Amino acid sequence: MRKMLILLFLTVILSLSGLSSGQSAAAALPKNNVYMDKSNHSYIPLRFLTGFGGIQTEWNAATKEIKISLADVSVTLTVGQATASVNGKPVTISERAFSENGTTYVPLSLICHSLGIMLTWNTDSSSLTLTKGEDNSTLPVLSGSLLKADSPAVVSANRTFKIGSRSFNVQTVTISLLHPTISLDVVLAGNTVGKVETLGSLAKRSSAIAAINGTFFNAYTQEDYKAPYGYIVSGGKLLMNSSGDRRTIFTIDNNNLAELIPGLDFNNRFATGSIKTSLQAGPRLLVNGKVALNVAAEGFKDAKILTGGGARSALGLTRDHKLILLTSGGATIPQLAEIMKQAGAYQAMNLDGGASSGLYYNGKYLTAPGRLISNAIVVKE
């Protein structure tokens, strides 16, 4: 997978050195992403280009002709044809525009070269940042085959991992984040900061197919208000502020590009308007496929995190944009990191654990929490 993604970037760069949005009605349009097929040709949705950096697009449904223009540059191509024109001059292309799943895709290298769009490869998130003038946008890279609406989007499994001399039985739910039917959110108990509710109730009233407990919170107070700890964002709105908190944050944008970022980076990232949903917990478990624990630096002081073992909840991100939700019993944080690595995660972080640890899927508990919780990550299909 790593070689394929590196090859994508090199293919685009090498190609650059040589060289109305056309959507049909569909129940669920694919997320915007850069798509690389099995021949390592890369494409971008025509609808993404519309308006990006001042780009204008035209689609002729009768002739399947596409016109993409910016200032004094005009690119014309036709779905299925190996020829195009730039400002009226013919160009032979190896990547042909095509339509699938209600979306028209155009060759990335041709468009970037012709219109002067800059590309930056992001290893951590397997994504490309496109920049044109004042505009920039980061899109996940999907490799292999396009995801179809009738393909499985969410699967669960009971798995066993051996860490040292111990075996851990874990529950997992794996979500294809780029699947056209999938969306994620963070839901507050009672839709109010400081309330608590069962995980199953949070999932059911959100019409969620899957859910996992979220941030740490003050579960032991006798007061009615049980404060959650850390940043919480839902629908692009900041529901809970936590200025100066260093713990790891899970973020996701409108294209379901998920990332894990340091707490101190949150305010600058949120100010860009790119974060749709986020939740802070930690500590970080994996960075780029390797165990990377710096628990004290994230501000943790509780022995339950520093040295103890217990029920754990965690989330992981794979290189091919899948989200792994996982629960395990009796694990220390270092053991949990190894579990997430064996589960196939490339990036991973811990969530609240102990009696809060819970995982819900398809109308029932895979792991039942031992108490009411403050908030949850919910997966809708």
Structure description:
The protein has 381 residues and is mostly beta strands. It has two domains: 2-143, Copper Amine Oxidase, Chain A, domain 1, CATH 3.30.457; 154-380, no CATH class. The chain is 15% helix and 40% strand. The chain contains seven helices and 29 strands. The chain has helices at residues 2-18, 46-49, 108-115, 199-205, 266-271, 303-306, 333-342; strands at 34-36, 42-45, 56-60, 65-70, 73-78, 83-86, 89-92, 98-100, 103-107, 118-122, 127-132, 135-143, 154-163, 166-176, 183-188, 210-213, 232-234, 237-240, 249-252, 258-261, 277-280, 284-287, 290-291, 310-317, 322-331, 347-350, 359-361, 364-367, 375-380. Strands 8-9-2-1-12-11-10 form a seven-stranded mixed β-sheet. A seven-stranded antiparallel β-sheet has the order 13-14-25-24-26-22-23, covered by helices on one side. The protein has a five-stranded antiparallel β-sheet with strand order 3-4-5-6-7. A hairpin with a 4-residue loop joins strand 5 and strand 6. The relative contact order is 0.14. Residues 1-27 have low confidence and may be disordered.
Report the principal-axis shape.
elongated
The stretches of 5 or more residues where confidence is low (pLDDT under 50) are 1-27
Helix vs. strand class: mainly beta
Strand order of the largest sheet: 8-9-2-1-12-11-10
- Tell me the number of helical segments per DSSP (H or I, 4 or more residues long): 7
Content of β-strand: 35-45%
Mean pLDDT across residues: 92
Helix content: 10-25%
Which radius of gyration do the C-alpha atoms yield?
22 Å
Biggest sheet character: 7 strands, mixed
Instruction: Give the terminus-to-terminus CA distance.
Output: 27 Å
The total beta strand count reads 29
How many domains in all? 2
